[in-house]
Specification:
The chain is an all-alpha fold. It contains 29 helices and two strands. The longest helix is centred in the N-terminal third of the chain and has 41 residues. The chain is globular. InterPro entries: AA/rel_permease1.
Length: about 700
Amino acid sequence: MSGSEITSSSAPVGDLRDGKGNEFIKVQNEDELRLAQMGHKQELDRHFSLWSLIGLAANCTISWTGLGLGLMTAINAGGPGALIYGFILVFILQSFVGASLAEFVSAYPTEGGMYHWIAAIAPKRYNSLLSFATGWCTVFGWIFTTASTNLIYATTAMALIALYHDGLVVQPWMTFVAYQILNILTAGVVMFGNRFIPAINKFSLVYLQLAWFITMVVVAAKAPLHNDSKFVFRTWINETGWDNNVICFITGLVNPMYSLGGLDGISHITEEMPNPGRNAPLGLAITLSIAFVTGLSYLLSLMFSVQNYGSLADTHTGLPLAELFWQATSTRGGAFGLVFMVWIALGPCVIGSQLSTGRVFWAFARDEGLPLSNIWARVNPKLGSPFNAQLCVTVITGLLGCIYLGSTTAFNSMMSSAVTINNLAYVVPILTNVILFRRTMRRGPFFMGQTVGMTVNIISVAWLVFAIVFFSFPYQMPVTVSNMNYTCVVVGGFLTIELIWWLIAGKSRTQADGLPPFKAITIPNVKRLSKGWDLKCWESDIHLALRNRNLSAVISHHLPQPTHDHISYDNWLKWSQLVNKWLIHNLDGGFAILLESIRPYLDLADETYLAIRDLRFPDKEDIVSEFIKLWSMRRHHFHSIAAYVGAWRAQYAATKVMLHEIKGEMPELCSYINYQIGDPRATSGKMTYDEFDGIVNGILRTFF
């Protein structure tokens, strides 16, 4: 990452550096500032609107399309009733997971997603390892998701051909060829058509609902006979070989879990949307709501309209949904048309999966968590996308497809492997949040609070752990080489590779978790630099920067066209030399401002306030420490303090305070900071107007 300065028109908190030897990060708005607070420079265009975002999220969850196309894994594991009840159950439990993820993405909106979240909240001792492991799970969970989604896409294409050519028996090599062609085409759209993806997402959002309605109505209207409610809701079919019906039912939950998976997909484009702290959780909530309505109604239409349920698994097309459409419409053309509509709907889903996978791969490479990270972390300036990372994802996805030639059973385990690895990535930050009693969780625009948040997080963890364990169970008994669930093998192999890379390179990479050493310039952090301040109680924007061990951004909106440089820790040392004449002698004015900012909830009498304000420098150190302790406890006065600070900022923004108006009072506060972190032996020097302007306005935004 590179950059030269930081400028902004709005947004909070102190001083941030990219952690890779560069002094400045440039920001132009509050969204870029939030990204800068987490140690990264804005490199991608924010061209995803809310509706485009919802379209992408709907593509990643694939809802009703996934339910229909994934019937093969569930039709014999409980029957029609189990399909419907299983979908409802999974939706409820996934909603808890979605709420937990929404809270994280609202607080930490970066394309890295879960591995950035765990980096923000985990104890320093375990930070690197947890972030590294979560990053690998996130990356390869999405790679397996893309591979399995692309396989469904290819299988559907071959089903269309089989419907057109009635005598054709689909062979594995045919599906493999279709898989590779579609992998290249969808990846090409992402690599070369980045500017068209928002439009594709909007089209997909509309088309998904249109195709859902048409297929649901046509199937229900054209079916020769309709099943009764007893068949749909009370029929139990167990052809899995499991004597325990509960385990039989659980193995069938893979299909709805897969169709409602990919909840984090929305988090991996947060650097390409405006106001991600608000829009990402909102988009996730709307997506889940749409998925439930369309998925449940679609399943009901299919189950009431199926004519011969037992023949779905033996269709020559290789796709149970195609057989069901054929039964319902009684014509090959009708079945072809409905499958074709589903196939068109699935295209943007695969593109969305490719996009999310490429973005999280790029984000993790940007934090040096992958081999050859410097190559994959590059953004192509002409295409406006991480071309190298997307190309690597395409190659890996293509190589995974080669497994299909050797064993269709092993490759089909990619679906449950994708679910399991993604669940591992989800459970790490949520479980850590529970263990730490949410103390280190930052408040984003969407925040559930302590009681509700803890309850939701605990339910999420219980469900994810349950799914990780039981979705590795064999789908059929007795277990043979041909019917084994290879999820445990795939996941075990992946974890082994991850461990090897950690031992080889992970420990030595200071940026593997994206966390450079922090030197944020705030009053509490100033004290911490000299006395080891405990920061665990922090819950504000400054808390985000400190817990991330990044620098928080120093910006200002007081001038009409702000041009203030980002002030890194190294620069503060330089400024301390330039302002040596303020170093010891001029604390009083800065102290008065500090006292004034904290006065509203100190309940000081006027005489006491004036007496403290008039104290000379040597007597004020202890009082400063006491004020800082009170400031650190501001979580108990959060609303009143937030209102006070907001009013303070609004007053200065409204009156357009110019430099000469604050010049008389801010140098002293600047000197206090330089006194705490500067070199007392520093030599004097002259400061330019712009340099002084940057410091003054940086201080204003840091403290007020």
